Structures are given as C-alpha cells and as structure tokens.
Amino acid sequence: MMKKLTNMQRDALREIGNIGSGNAATSMAKMMQNKVEMAVPDLKIIAFEEVMDMLGGAETTVVANMFRINGNAPGTVFLIMSLEEADSIAQHFSGLELFDCQDDPEPLGVSAIQEFANILTSAYVSALADFTGLHMQPSVPLISIDMAGAVISQGLVEISQANDYAIIIDTVMNVPAKKGMVQSNGQFLLLPDPDSLPKIFSALGISYDE
Prior knowledge:
By secondary structure, this protein is α+β, with helices and mostly antiparallel strands. The protein contains six helices and ten strands; from the N terminus they run αββαββααββαββββα.
C-alpha cells in the first residue's frame, strides 16, 4: 500500500518527522538543562523484508522499544538501538558507571533507556497529532533485548498481513555528557494500521488513493 505514496504524501510525512525532531530536541534539552543537537531526519519507505537487512540482519542483537499508538489513527512504533548506543544512553541518563544490556542489566539503566525512548517517541507522535489534529497517544514502552528477527517479527505479524511497507525515520541526536557528546542514532519504524494512513492524509487535506 505505502509503495504508492506520492511526493506530496512523502513530503508531508517528512515534515512531520522534522517537527518531531525539533520537539524531541526541545524536550531532551529541558530534561538535560543543556543544548541538544538534532540532525534533520532521513525518511524512507521500505518493504518489510528489507527491515531486517536495515538492522544488520535477523540475528543481530538490538535493543527495541515498542509502543502501541492509540487514538484516531492507531499503529505501532519501534525505536531500535544498537547495544553500544543503548549502553551509552543508560550510563548517561542513569548515572551508572557501567551498564551492559546483555549481561544482567541494572533495572535503573533499563528504565533510563525506556525513558529516553519515551521522550523521543512522544515527541514524534505529538508532532503527528498536532500536525493532523488527530488524537494519538503512545502506550508505555515495552523493551526487548534480542535478535532483530525475533523482536521485529513479533510486532509485525498482524500488520504485515495488510501492509507491505514500513515508514523508517532515521534520527541523529547529540546530547552533552561528562565525557563528551553522546550520539543517538535511533531508527523509528512507524507502522500505521491499515486504515490509519488514509485518515492521516485526509486530515492534512491530501488525497489518498487505495
């Protein structure tokens, strides 16, 4: 379905991503009480079978935060991080000297990763809701540390039966830390439910042809 998106539709989604990045940087800066730099996000629309390759292969271990988007245009969002990135974020936001996602991770560090993911995802969903005027609310994040194939497949089974493509938003954020800058290179996988994209584009005044 999403393969047929027009340039106007893609531009609208990209603009929402830009606004979401700004929201995320502002929210993070307030929490950190310091300036946060956010690069312009790169938006892609890829086939489900390409998602695993994008993450480095089905057997690559990743840290995934999954959100269910409730409201007028429901869907599912994944925020995917590498192990190294998640470890760095956990140490920085929790104050832990050491943290290892794969080696009996401290609950405090796991909570820090979830809070980081929650801030970013809420910023993007808020941008989408404000831009469209639709009510959209992310759930509490569910975190998984597992092979990409196992993590992603669990959330894609039902959606992939109706849709063939996913919206990918690559985001790069530089956060000041004691030992320099912590860079987040998280990847958002936005998976609208089958009826949600027409509602989103209709709210934007953009036609949507099935």
